[in-house]
Amino acid sequence: MTYVVTESCIKCKFTDCVDVCPVDCFREGPNFLVIDPDECIDCTLCVAECPAEAIYAEDDVPAGQERFTALNAELARVWKPIIERKEPPADADEWLKVKDKFGLLER
Among 61, 57, 47, which residue's Cα sits nearest to residue 14? Predict the structure, then answer.
């Protein structure tokens, strides 16, 4: 089983999760992070660190967000690794509780 970054991360892109990942499995896009399922060791450390509560075990992805499992795998193949925490976007807190952000995902 792997962990999956879901919709809550879009336009927030907090990187607290990156700081605790022992295997550097996060990949960075313009306004979203994904987890490389081939690198993730299921350690769960990232889950508690995510301010957006966007990371779930593959089997626990919320209903309606199942497409993020395949999306993480797809984008992990093309996005570059992120191995250090960065400052979030200036407006990240404004996007934190916004729902239905899938259409705002930048590839």
Answer: 47
How far is 27 from 5, CA to CA, in rounded Å?
10
CB 19, CB 49: distance < 8 Å: yes
The type of residue at 60 is D
**CATH topology for the 3-84 domain:** Alpha-Beta Plaits (3.30.70)
Cβ–Cβ < 8 Å for 53, 3: no
Q: Where are the domains of the chain?
A: 3-84
Over its length of 107 residues, how does the chain's per-residue pLDDT go in tens digits? 799 999 999 999 999 999 999 999 999 999 999 999 999 999 999 999 999 999 999 999 999 999 999 999 999 999 999 999 999 999 999 999 999 999 999 99
CB 40 within 8 Å of CB 4: no
